[in-house]
Amino acid sequence: MQELAQQKESKILVIGDLMIDEYLWGDCERISPEAPVQIVDIKKESTLLGGAGNVISNLVAFGVDVGVLSVVGDDEVGLLVKNMISKQGAKAFLVEQKGRKTSRKTRLMASNSQVVRYDKESKNDISPISVKALFERFQEKINHYDVVLISDYNKGVLTKELLNKVISYSNQIGKKVLVDPKGNDFSKYSGAYLLTPNKKEAELATGFKIQSDLDLKEALAKLQKTANLGVSVITLSENGIAILDKDEVTIKPTVAREVYDVTGAGDTVLASLGFALSLGCDIFKATEFANLAAGVVVGKIGSATASLDEIEDYQATLHKSSIELHIKSFVQIEKTVKRLRNQGKSVVFTNGCFDILHKGHVSYLNTAKSFGDILILGLNSDKSVKRLKGKNRPINTQDDRAYILSALECVDYVVIFDEDTPYELIKLVQPDVLVKGADYEGKEVVGSDIAKQTKLVTFVDGKSTTKTIEKIKKAK
């Protein structure tokens, strides 16, 4: 997904109920003398953007150009919502409705346990004037965006009239609409590309229990018919995501290793599906990505997001990462190294042509990896090899060499460079350890002034690309 995101910018418009999630954190050491209740001594307060804001946060973490449409009250909380959206880097296209209370949910936390929650909000449908104003803003902004995500928290913003107008207009101009639904009447989302109900929500909407594969298929089919969907989807928690496409049910299994907290996982699924589809992925590739993103999020405490780097790392730990993910550009490796530094990893760097891979190469690279946590290999490009080795080299193209090298267990990342030396790449990586062959003993090693230490590794006797080529020539 990283590669697709580099080729095309994702632009997504989010419509939904916005709110503030407020937390009051404290300790409880005694009971009130006035009533049998705890006395909580507040130590700190924290404020988060909630509701559809969780979807926004996930999209921002993916690097998406995010627009937000909603209705808030002409109150202090509404202003706070607008400021928090802007602070996240999203664009707020909000309509203010006089007299409406913007949702604020306050949770009192004592010793990390929730004691009570109290809400201040308006839950009635927004006014016809607000519906009209919001839809006009939607028409003004939609052409800039690729996909529309609707996050329904049943707080009155997403009226039947507004949903009908938004979905109909989106279909007219060829924009997919994805919905995280609420309630048991999914017909109000008619015409959406897909909905993302969980199993319980799907059971409420269809009216029957999902206890077998046949039940699942019937539920998917009923949802598709009821809401006139392009694709029917049901999220199945630890069992993954079920998809009905052309009368065939496909279940993409979950990839979570450990589940600590499912808070916000539904928002992550909606955001990641929208993100993948906006980049041109099909529904099957999109659900694979959504499962990975959800796997990262449920491994964290509280509502959380997953960055593309975290998803890539997570995918690698599951042995599901493709070889191409380990081949990086200069821009990509700079971001990757920064992330690795934050994780406390030590970085080893080496470089070479590695034209015809042999035992000597693999032994050398395996030794290099032993000097740290991560091995980054700078690979001479075809142009660079020709300048260094002659017009008949390389035997294998840079793409082939990079692919084979990145498949080695000891090599974490491969970066192709065009220069005669990797000095600029070494400056970018700032390795903890720089590794070269023992034939550099007594010579200046390019980049040794940058790396914290330089180590020389002895090659396996009798093994070289030149000797391999000579042997092939003699065999003709």
TrEMBL record:
It is an enzyme of class 2 (transferase). One of its GO terms (cellular component) is cytosol. Signal peptide: none annotated. Residues 1-321 are annotated as: Ribokinase. Residues 11-306 form the Carbohydrate kinase PfkB domain. The keyword Transferase applies. Keywords: ATP-binding, Carbohydrate metabolism, Kinase, Multifunctional enzyme, Nucleotide-binding, Nucleotidyltransferase, Transferase. The active site is at residue 267. Homodimer. In the C-terminal section; belongs to the cytidylyltransferase family. In the N-terminal section; belongs to the carbohydrate kinase PfkB family. Catalyzes the ADP transfer from ATP to D-glycero-beta-D-manno-heptose 1-phosphate, yielding ADP-D-glycero-beta-D-manno-heptose. This is Bifunctional protein HldE. It comes from Halarcobacter ebronensis. The lineage of its organism: Bacteria, Pseudomonadati, Campylobacterota, Epsilonproteobacteria, Campylobacterales.
